[in-house]
Design goal:
Elements: E1 2-7, H1 15-27, E2 32-36, H2 44-47, E3 56-60, E4 63-68, H3 78-82, E5 88-91, E6 96-99, H4 109-113, E7 119-124, E8 127-133, E9 139-145, H5 152-170, E10 174-178, H6 185-191, E11 196-201, H7 205-220, E12 225-230, H8 236-246, E13 250-254, H9 258-265, H10 276-289, H11 292-295
Parallel strand pairs: 1-10, 1-11, 2-9, 2-10, 11-12, 12-13
Antiparallel strand pairs: 3-8, 4-7, 5-6, 8-9
Bound molecules: iron/sulfur cluster (2 copies).
Length: about 300
């Protein structure tokens, strides 16, 4: 089983649009599972026509917080001095610490520093993970971080394991992961174990700069990748520069097309529409069908679309 991850350095450049379309196209060729790793703004399900109530959800506990055992505390303030996240405030009235659950990262430093063992680190329900069957004949696994909670990278880790278990059970050949945007923990967790990465960008200075940043991470993990330029015709000179930067890694270009907007507002993958952008995505999928890293028997660090 192989993992294809679609990511972007910047949000809003078409990652979910491409992920949903590729999932639908690959599902016609092989058994697949889709995995929405963007737990801060989960929307791959929507792009595939599924509302939240179509999922079977379960709470997950991948985060920890400090809790005070008041009767053991003698007010020595060691915990206060050892929290680098400013998550501890001093309650002058009680002469005891107070923990801010929004700032606490659950690192455990205060608990280690406490000479009275008056702090315990407890697991908290910080998100949920769910799965659903799409009308395109494959399962999607998604996750959501609870408002104000931390630990999104760990939720991604958890949901990827769930997606891989479902893929194994269903005999899937490919897991299509829609990553979070940027370069933070959920992106690194999305990348983990990937066999091939598609980095999507658009011809804007911010998107080009963020593409270069995210590619530093992809290269660090030595994962083969290809680049897609979305809405390339909106800024042809900058598109040309990105093309030159991409060189052989250019996997394809998608034109700005009003039908893409229509597809998105109707919760339909673009490739279900007859339009220019859909044809360009089909070409990208055809190139990926020849990608050794995705369809070969072994993991390959070499990049080649040529079978
Ligand atoms: S667990 Fe870490 S972040 Fe939370 S209060 Fe203790 S030291 Fe601060
Ligand atoms: S380190 Fe322990 S005993 Fe000291 S103030 Fe903090 S919780 Fe209380």
């Amino acid at each position: 089983m192989k993992i294809l991850t679609i990511l972007s350095g910047k949000g809003g450049v078409g990652k979910t649009m491409l992920s949903s379309s590729l999932a639908v196209l690959f599902a016609k060729q092989a058994k697949i599972v889709a995995c929405d790793c963007d737990v801060d703004a989960s929307n791959l399900g929507l792009a595939l026509g599924l509302r939240e109530n179509a999922f079977k959800w379960q709470d997950v506990e991948t985060s920890e917080k400090a809790v005070l055992i008041e009767e053991k505390c003698d007010g020595c303030k060691m915990c206060l001095q050892n929290c680098v996240f400013s998550a501890i405030h001093w309650n002058e009235e009680k002469d005891k610490p107070e923990f801010d659950s929004f700032l606490c990262e659950g690192c455990g430093a205060c608990s280690l520093a406490c000479p009275k063992s008056a702090i315990k680190i407890v697991k908290v329900k910080n998100g949920k993970v769910g799965y659903a069957r799409t009308k395109y004949g494959f399962t999607i696994v998604a996750g959501q971080l609870k408002m104000g909670e931390s630990g999104s990278g760990k939720i991604v880790d958890y949901l990827k394991k769930k997606a891989l278990a479902i893929a194994e059970e269903e005999g899937a050949k490919l897991v299509v992961c829609d990553s979070a945007a940027g370069i933070s923990c959920p992106v690194i967790a999305s990348l983990r174990g990937s066999d091939f990465v598609i980095a999507i960008t658009e011809p804007s200075p911010a998107s080009f700069r963020d593409l270069k940043r995210v590619l530093c991470i992809v290269k660090h993990f030595r994962i083969p990748y290809g680049i897609v330029i979305n809405k390339w015709n909106l800024n042809k000179p900058l598109s040309k520069r990105i093309e030159r930067f991409a060189g052989k890694k250019l996997l394809g270009k998608i034109s700005y097309d009003r039908e893409v907007v229509n597809a998105i507002v109707n919760l339909t993958p673009v490739v279900e529409k007859k339009c220019k952008a859909a044809n360009e995505i089909i070409k990208i999928k055809e190139r990926l069908s020849k990608c050794k890293s995705l369809w070969g028997n072994t993991k390959s660090n070499s990049y080649s679309f040529e079978g």
